[in-house]
Amino acid sequence: MKIIIMSDTHGNYPLALRACEMAEPVDAIIHLGDGAEDVQLLEAVLSQPVISVAGNCDSRSTAPREFLWETGGKRVLLVHGDRYGVKNDLSRLEQRGLQMAADAVFYGHSHHALVTNLSGMLFVNPGTLMDSETPTTFAVLEITSEGMSVCLMNIA
Fold it and tell me: Where are the alpha helices (H) located in the chain, listed in sequence order?
């Protein structure tokens, strides 16, 4: 299973669509908040549902703030990250992942891409797809019988 993970598009729908085109074909699209309108546009244009959570800038979104997604025999916790202080450290989010018995935790909010392992869980922050001082990045996750592998991708 191949999954594209993005976050913090903040209305930059063209870069979100470009990321999807770069990663295709994919089995699932995940958006980790701060871009609810972009989620709606992606679903309409790609005719594919987007699994999403709401971020701190998505006040009108009906998406949940947190979602435990079970796929490919894995439990994946999806959050935006603002409620867990991810700009400072990952300790609170790590504890939440352990509480949820997650195999992986996907989060955004900080606009800084990161892939790491904590307490046996894969943590992925795809970064941001917004023109800013940070690189425009997204992540591609593959789940196979051997496990999970992730690659951070940069849109030049």
Answer: 13-23, 36-46, 91-99
Please write the tens of the pLDDT for every residue from 84-120. 999 999 999 999 999 999 999 999 999 999 999 999 9
Q: Is the pTM of this model over 0.70?
A: yes
**Phi (first) and psi of residue 89, to 5 degrees:** -165, 175
Task: Dig out the tokens for 48 from the structure.
Answer: 């594919």
CATH number of 2-154: 3.60.21.10
- What angle, 0 to 180 degrees and rounded to 10, lies between the N-to-C axes of helices 13-23 and 36-46? 50
List, as one string, the DSSP characters of 57-98: T-TT--S-SEEEEEETTEEEEEE-SGGGTTTT-SHHHHHHHH
